[in-house]
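Hello support,

Our group uses your service weekly, and this is the first time we've seen a run hang past the timeout. The protein is ABC transporter permease. I'm not sure whether the cause is the sequence or the server load. Input pasted verbatim:
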Amino acid sequence: MSDTTTPETTHTAVEVRFRGGGFAPSARRGVGVAVFVLLILLVEWGTRAGWISALTLPKPSDVAATFVELWQSGLLFKHLIPSLSRLAVGTTLGASIGIGVGILIGLFSYVRAGLVPLVAALFPIPKIALLPLFVIWFGIDETSKYALIAFGTFTPTVVATYGAVDNVDRSLIRMGQSFGLSWLSIVRKIVLPGAMPGILSGLRISLAIAIILLVAAEMLGAEYGIGAYILEAGSLYDLERLFAGVLILSVLGVTLSMVIGLIEKRLLAWRG
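Update from on-call engineer: The timeout came from a worker crash unrelated to the input. Re-ran successfully.
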């Protein structure tokens, strides 16, 4: 009887490449700028070729020239500085109170039971529609503008904050409890860091709403401000100045978004 030999099976370790790159997006520098430049060039070509009526859209080159004139004349800062001041005060008040209330709602059941119905009732109200009421309550000066922006940023910040607190991984909280951490330590070391991504995402939305409300507030009883500048240009049907004002708002929005992005990189460096 012949001997049969069974060959040994050799197992070699094969490295499996991580395929979750889509869940960790990397920056693609220049793509966004290229899209903006291409869009501007198309509009410029369309207006020069006659495909786009000058009564509908001005030439981007004319808008850029108007923007340069604003810069050189000093009118840009006369309108921009009051707007930035109103935006900073109103957003700081609304967002800080909103974050505080949202954290309380997320941590305490009695606060949640009492305030969530109130926030749910206030959230769908169009804040711009309340501008005349704020003028009656606070007058037509700066206080009504601060109050409108603060109220407009308060409700979305509250909703985003307590939603972020709710989404913190409960297994991490139980782990902290098993290690004997105090309630305050769990909140400071686990809950707040875990909720920070959602809070910052909510701030992006709140800042966009704040800019919209800023323009609306400045269109009523403001001598200087981006909203007042746009209103004056629109009443004169000066499309170059109007679009220059829109450009300023767009740059402001992009700048604030970049600031939030930098804050995210600093505060959320632990995510890797």
